[in-house]
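Progress against Task 2.4 (sequence-to-structure conversion) is shown through the following example record, which the project officer requested during the mid-term review.
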Amino acid sequence: MCHADLNLKTASCLRLFLTIVFLSGCDSAPDTSTETLPDGPKTGQTSALMSDEVPWPTGGNLVYVSNEDSGDISIISTISNQVISTLNVGRRPRGIRVGPAGEKVFVALSGSPKCPPSMSDKDCEKKVTDKTKDGIAVVDILTAKLERVLPGGSDPEQFDLSVDGRRLFVSNEDSNQVTIVDIETGTVLKTIPVAREPEGVRVSPDGTLVYVTSETDHEVTVLDANSGEIIATIGVGLRPRDAIFSADGSRAFVSAEVAHTISVIDVGANEVIATIELGDSAKPVGMAATSDGKILFVANGRGKTVSAIALDTFEIIASVEVGPRSWGIGLTEDERFLYTANGPSDDVTVVNTESMEVVAKIRVGESPWGVAIGPNARQSP
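Structure tokens generated for the chain above:
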């Protein structure tokens, strides 16, 4: 009888122990479920570490996200909103662009240390700088591999491609320069001194102009895209981050983070013709515009939101909270969905542009920074 009681107690304890272990394992296991949100696509919860298990999709767009702290890029399918691949590219990837055919992706890498505004210059100088890590990574999407690293000047942050896809215009933040690079040969064609702390770079739709924003001098340098000569400088709001052109190229918009504004520029006249006030909580950085020229979307950085602005009235018509320090931003080709990179939360938010509602959040790498969206040039095998 005593042996029977002992065996019963032992079996009970064993069952309890196994139950605890099972539940603990469930709590620590990665969440690979998908969730359908109202009026939106599926939310891909697959961890980047499991991305090799996700099949490459057929069709749809691909969203490329540069992850500054983990040194990689996440590739997301717009069909499933899942990370389908994570590729190591180098140190501090930030600016990111898709080539014209969607077969190449370019990513700015920097060997300079990450020094946020809250860090003193003295503390920043103590960090390790390795200029051999500077460059523009070229990723071959057909093979999903890093192909090579082009020179990009010192501390490349953002850049844009020429309309013909043959050259890069790169901002060099720590040297106050813009570097023009020939993609095929990998040679530096020209280096141009500009105002202090250049960041945002944008080529006009007709390919003739390059806008470069300079954070410290609060201005835009206008370059001739063919010669690299400076055509004009335009004063804008405090700490300009990004620039974008209207589809017809007649206007440009510049986000000013500290001024909480968007400067509207008459491109032909090289002057600011209007200023859009976003409110004190907004810290505008990345921007995207609809192809019909009707709406401008602005990622408000530490303001945690995206604003939609009607470009006929310059009024805010909608806003939505997307995540902490929303930075990079991109529209799908059909312009139905918007993707934002949220640095501190290591995720990307998907917004339905018609309802201005969040329909998905996707886990990516560490400190996502830039977003670029392009066609799916590589189909399923």
